[in-house]
Design brief:
Layout (H helix, E strand, L loop, with lengths): L2 E5 L4 H12 L3 E6 L2 H5 L7 E5 L8 H4 L7 E4 L13 H21 L3 E7 L2 H9 L8 H22 L2 E7 L1 E3 L8 H10 L5 E3 L4 E2 L1 E3 H14 L4 E4 L6 E2 H12 L6 E5 L14 H6 L7 H15 L2
Parallel strand pairs: 1-2, 1-4, 2-3, 4-5, 5-6, 6-11, 7-10, 8-13
Antiparallel strand pairs: 9-12
Helix pairs in contact: 1-8, 4-6, 7-9, 9-11
Length: 305
């Protein structure tokens, strides 16, 4: 890749993806609503900041005159993974904003559109197929993400544009200010406290943010058209195994409280092709949790308390 556009370039995933590409000499047009985050890339001569609200996406072709873009990455998502996941009106707006981003990408003549989707799409599939499904509030967020993927894939097909996506599981890493589960668990362990957890017998995945960025690059370069890839480990562990591994590295003296809640994530991993991204691009996770989690825990200690 030589030139890309990245929405949400100052976010958790976006920052790592942007810096990785910039370090490889790629010209990056970084789109974000936060001008302070855009200024964080000013040391790079190959970075071109574009301050834009979500409502401004339709004007991006007028603001980015370069029409030789290899990949348009859409990572931005209003509200992020916060209590906004319950805001159904915002999540439906996010789906519309994603459509605006794809249409803008087409007008800019970007060769490919890559969308950062969620692996909770598989939970939504189970929601649609199972009468006994008990939806979590997360399903509102997941429905918005899934709707955005369907809208973008449909638009791309009819506009004659290449589309690929990454279905991203639970991430962890530095510069994540969200209240996602890993940060909550780390914060408790940093204080020597036992977090209250589900039983933990369900399959689960945790992926380091640099692995996610590298996967998105692989999808942009080698991903197949109209294909959405699971971005995670090819062999999974249970939730309990992941939590024990985190505990053992941060606060081995703490006894974890499994079973405080029932297992509530309902993803049928038998329907997930864990090897597709590896087969098509050669990408697979490189970072082991045990090698990264102490540094992540220190970052959480310094920035989140």
């Amino acid at each position: 890749m030589n030139k890309v556009i990245i929405t949400g370039c100052g976010g958790f995933f976006g920052r790592v993806l942007t810096r990785t590409l910039l370090d490889h000499g790629v010209r990056v047009y970084g789109v974000d609503i936060n001008e302070e985050k855009l200024s964080g890339f000013k040391k790079y001569d190959n970075f071109y900041p574009v301050a834009a609200e979500f409502e401004d996406y339709e004007q991006l072709p007028e603001r980015i005159k370069d029409t030789d873009i290899d990949v348009f990455y859409h990572l931005a998502w209003a509200g992020g993974f916060t209590t906004a996941i319950r805001d159904y009106k915002l999540q439906m707006k996010n789906a519309a904003f994603a459509g605006d981003a794809l249409v803008a990408a087409h007008r800019i003549h970007a060769k490919r559109f890559v969308y950062a989707n969620t692996y909770n799409q598989y939970e939504i599939m189970n929601f649609l197929e199972s009468e006994g499904f008990e939806p979590r509030y997360t399903c509102i967020y997941s429905t918005g993400k899934t709707a955005a993927g369907l809208i973008c894939r449909t638009l791309a097909h009819n506009l004659g544009m290449e589309y690929s996506a990454g279905l991203i599981p639970m991430p962890y890493g530095e510069n994540n200010y969200s209240k996602q589960l890993v940060n909550v668990v780390i914060t408790s362990l940093n204080h020597g406290e036992a977090p209250k957890l589900v039983e933990g017998n369900n399959l689960y995945d945790l992926v380091y943010v640099q692995d996610i960025a590298d996967a998105l690059i692989a999808i942009g370069e080698k991903g197949k058209n109209k294909k959405e890839y699971y971005v995670g480990h090819r062999r999974l562990k249970t939730f309990k195994e992941w939590m024990i591994e985190i505990r053992d590295e941060i606060a081995p003296e703490v006894e974890l409280k499994f079973g405080e809640f029932k297992d509530n994530q309902q993803i049928d991993y038998s329907k997930v092709d864990l090897d597709a991204l590896y087969r098509d691009t050669g990408w697979e996770c490189r970072y082991e949790l045990r090698d990264r989690i102490k540094e992540v825990a220190q970052w959480v200690r310094d920035h989140i308390i």
